[in-house]
Amino acid sequence: MSNAQDSQAYDTASWQWVRGADGLTYIMTPAGQTILAVAWFPIPNINHDKASIDRLVSEFKDGPSKGANKVICSKCHGEGNHNVWDPKPASLKRHLYYHFNIKCYGCVGCGQQFMTRDHVIVHAMGHHMESNDRTAAVGYVFELHPDDS
Q1: Does residue 114 surpass a pLDDT of 60?
Q2: Rounded distance between C-alpha atoms, residue 49 and residue 66, angstroms
Q3: Which CA distances in Å does 24 have to 64, 116, 147?
Q4: What positions does the domain C2H2-type occupy (predicted)?
Q5: Reported pTM
Q6: How many angstroms separate the CA atoms of 74 and 81, rounded?
């Protein structure tokens, strides 16, 4: 469900924001129906590398945010972006890699680095291949951090 779809069926002016004992914020209707459980994801204001982001996400997911349907990123919030994000670890990692410009994949054809595997595939099809064969373009992808989990 997209961020827009989450709120379409409800009168958002009547939502109630309730802080639970578990540390999550629950968005509820006046009738008491829970719409979302939202967790605040505090991002320390330091330079992060891939390992520190992976650790941060792992600690966050093992903490009280476990039951959250959505996450508010403190870095986004501080920049004026008040969207909520998918709480899956892979989604949170990718989101934070963008914040800190961490590139995890490279192109064997030219060495250019990218944030996602798909970016390398699209790049290879446009710059190194005569066809748009995604299966063949996978051969251009290499991981920059192969020993990381």
Answers
A1: yes
A2: 24
A3: 7, 30, 34
A4: 105-132
A5: 0.74
A6: 9
Distance, CA of 131 to CA of 137 (rounded, Å): 9
The upper half-sphere exposure of residue 86, i.e. CA atoms within 13 Å in the direction of its Cβ, equals 10
- DSSP secondary structure of 35-104: EEEEEEE---SS---HHHHHHHHHHHHHTGGGG-SEEEEHHHHHTT----B---HHHHHHHHHHHTT---
Number of residues that this document lists for the chain: 149
pLDDT of the residue at 12: 61
Query: Of 148, 140, 100, 96, nearest to 119 (Cα)?
Result: 140
Cα separation of 74 and 55, whole Å? Answer: 17
Token pair of 78 as six digits: 């501080």
Residues 143-147 have a mean pLDDT of 85
- CA distance linking residue 149 with residue 129, whole number of Å: 30
Note every long-range contact of 110-118, with CB atoms under 8 Å and residues 24 or more positions apart, other chains counting. 113/144, 117/141
